[in-house]
Amino acid sequence: NIHTHDHWEQEEYNPKFCFTFVRHPIDRCVSAWREKLKKDLAKRLKGACPLRPDASLDAWVDWVTSQDPAQVDRHWGLQSQILKDKHTVAQWVGRFELLAYYWDVLRLRYPGLKPLPKLNSTNPGIPWYEEISPRARAKAARFYAPDLHRIGYGYEE
Length: 157
Fold this sequence. Notes:
By secondary structure, the protein is mainly α. The protein has 7 helices and 2 strands, in the order βαααβαααα. Strands 1-2 form a two-stranded parallel sheet. The longest helix is centred in the first third of the chain and has 13 residues, at about 25-35.
């Protein structure tokens, strides 16, 4: 639910079943560093990141966690904030890490859902917890504490 759509404002839009997937918040932060900062996209997103694309992950975490959680860009912001958004009417929330499994379960319940088109090809195969320093991990865990608590992810998970 990163982007809004015009049809959400129309009264006739009333989904029968609405669901979303969430991702481990620290993993999202690391992924945003890889995909938004390293590709020099972060400067064009909310907050206009001042960091250069070659900035370290620690510098990225320092910048992200220095922001107001209610104002941070949705690409690396708190998912618990997104889930409280007036446009988010999710009746069911699944974990991204189990996407393929949950998608198959949803397809059994809703046969009209198509198979997933592809797996995430942007992941370099290195788990987020091996990329981030203990200091940055602790700082990110404090920032993302509402997500870790509400969504039920563990700090070490």
